[in-house]
Amino acid sequence: MRHALSTHYFVNHRLTVAALERILHAGVPAVEIFCAKQHLDYTNKSQVNELAYWFKDEDLQLHSLHLPMHTDEVWGRSGPQAHLNICDLNKSKRIAAVDEIKRAIEVVESIPCLYLIQHVGGLNEEFDEHKLDMAFNSLEEISLFAKQRGAEILLENIPNGFSTGDKLCYLLGVTHLDLNFCFDVGHANLMEGVEEAFERMKPRIRSTHVHDNNGTDDSHLFPTLAESGTIDWQKIMGLLRSAENQYPLLLELKESPDFPQPLEAIKQIFERLENL
User: Fold this and answer.
1) What is d(CA 151, CA 154) in angstroms, rounded to the nearest whole number?
2) DSSP state, 242?
3) Strands, DSSP E only, in 79-125?
4) Could you read off the pLDDT of 196-208 as tens digits, one per residue?
5) What one-character DSSP code corresponds to residue 127?
6) Is the pLDDT score of 123 beyond 90?
7) CA-based Rg of the chain, rounded to a whole angstrom?
8) Is the CATH number 3.40.50.300 carried by domain 3-275?
9) Which pTM was predicted?
10) How far, rounded to the nearest angstrom, does the alpha carbon of residue 10 sit from its chain's CA centroid?
11) E strands of the chain, at which residues?
């Protein structure tokens, strides 16, 4: 399978050319950049331009951007006003969220990529039929804005009532939006189960997020290496290979003191997964 790495691992550090060079030299051919302002400040033209110039001359492919979840630099801890929710029933908050997401999408004007990863609803938010119209209006605007810039919105399954595989398919069915999915293996393990989510989402999967957890916490553990992981990777790799030409094997990991040489560990993960 094609390999890719999310910069989520380095998300609490400013994204630099040096970090991208280390990824490239580790033999990873493609990346997903996580749009969090402490990492990639998509409103900072200087940072965006520096990265854009580097990508033009290097072989590392920008596969996707993960669109922002918060407006601050501390994962939304500055207050509820920092959370971006495209399903918000408050019109002014929803419009502000969409506008902020569009600012991040503008990055692809400088650094082209295939896909933009978008969440529907907030973390642990319960499903509400009344919010489907809000999701439709937001996604219609965001997807058109992305398409005009040559990129495609992918909806990610996340731990909330809107984003199980079944509910994402239901959303597309009632809104008639023609969108595809980013299949998050770790999140599926926290919700309905990886196999059930995969089978429901399979025809529309165009990218992945591959990580492990203990079945309770969204800890983004290192697959096959972390001791507390609970996912049966031999079984899951069989599933992923059943449609492998549709998407890459994209690792989305969290920084861990257990792996002081993360890129070496990442190379080992890819080897282990491919050998299963």
Assistant:
1) 10
2) T
3) 115-118
4) 999 999 999 999 9
5) P
6) no
7) 18
8) no
9) 0.97
10) 14
11) 3-6, 30-34, 61-66, 115-118, 152-156, 180-184, 205-209, 249-251
